[in-house]
Structure formats: C-alpha cells, structure tokens
Specification:
By secondary structure, the chain is mostly helical. Helices cover 66% and strands 0% of the residues.
C-alpha cells in the first residue's frame, strides 16, 4: 500500500499487488511499450517493402499517358542530375549553365518537382528568381543614358578656380559655374 508522506511517516513504494515495488512495475511497462513499438516499426517496414513494386507500376501507367516531349524533358533533367552526382567530389554543385538548364526544363515539365532528386524544388525556384534578377539588372543598365565626360575647358576652369580661390569649396565653385550656365554636380567638382 502506498502511504502518503505526511506527519513524519516514511513513503513506502509498494502496492497491494503481491508487495511488488512500484518502480519495478513502471520499468516493466516501459520495456513492454518499447518492444511493442519495435514490432510495429518492423511490421510497417515489411508491409512497405512488400508494396515496393507498386510505385514502379503506377509510374509506368502514368507515363503511358504523357507526351513524348515531356518524357524527353524529364529524361534530360534526370540525366543532368546524374552528371552532377557522378563528379568525383565530396559535395557536387551545379554550375551556372546547369542551373539554367534545370530551370528551363522545369518550365517545360508539369511534374518537375518529382523529377528533382539532388536539390529541393525551392532551390530551383530560387535559381529562377536569381536569373530574372540578373536579366532585369542587365536590361536596366543597358538602357541608361550615359553622360559624356566634361569638356576639357570645364575641367581646366574648375581646377583654375580651386587654385586661385583656396577657400572656396565644391559648393561655391558649383554655384559660380551655374552662374556661367555650366551644370556640374558637387561630387564631380570634388
């Protein structure tokens, strides 16, 4: 019988069931739960292994209804991943042209997420976004209007003004040039 710890009495860890210690009962229950868990895990593994050919058969049935173009694109994607995986390095990485190829193939394939094995689908989406960022950065730079360099006379004038008027700063020289109708930024004068 389990006695309460009160009024100076000692706590006894025995139950009425044949005077078996409670700790022993808890240990036995824990071991039984562990053994049952192992058996369940083993059974799940065996059931999964027995149905292993099923994905191959269903894959074949699905492939019958896919277009030739899609099958070729998927084969190209898988082949490219095999090329990367077969490199003799500890952690193979995709080179920029291979990343571009996978992004292109993922736009062709409808089920491209199932064909990606070496990287996560989110990684290919990130590569796609990086490619767009680079494309638009390049497009926006090429359309800029570049100012021609300052005329030689303007540069000589700025240097002469700064030599003759040592106390004038860039802002003052800029103001004087504006009076003459020459537009130059303060940073250019520095």
């Amino acid at each position: 019988m389990i006695e309460e710890f009160a009024e100076g009495k000692t706590l006894r860890l025995y139950q009425n069931v044949g005077q078996i210690p409670v700790v022993f009962v808890f240990v036995v229950k824990a071991r039984v739960r562990f053994a049952v868990g192992k058996v369940v895990t083993w059974a799940k593994k065996k059931i999964t292994e027995s149905f292993r050919p099923l994905p191959i058969v269903t894959g074949l049935v699905v492939d019958v209804f896919r277009s030739r173009q899609e099958l070729v694109a998927e084969n190209m994607m898988l082949r490219q991943q095999l090329i990367v995986a077969s490199r003799k390095v500890s952690k193979p990485s995709f080179q920029p042209h291979e990343r571009g190829l996978l992004v292109l193939l993922s736009s062709i394939l409808h089920r491209w997420r199932q064909a990606v094995l070496l990287v996560k689908p989110d990684t290919i989406i990130r590569w796609h976004r990086e490619g767009f960022r680079l494309l638009w950065r390049r497009k926006s730079k090429s359309g800029r209007v570049h100012r021609s360099a300052l005329a030689k006379e303007t540069i000589e004038l700025i240097q002469r003004m700064s030599r003759e008027n040592r106390l004038w700063g860039a802002e003052r020289i800029r103001g004087e040039l504006l009076k003459l109708g020459i537009q130059v930024s303060k940073r250019t004068i520095r």
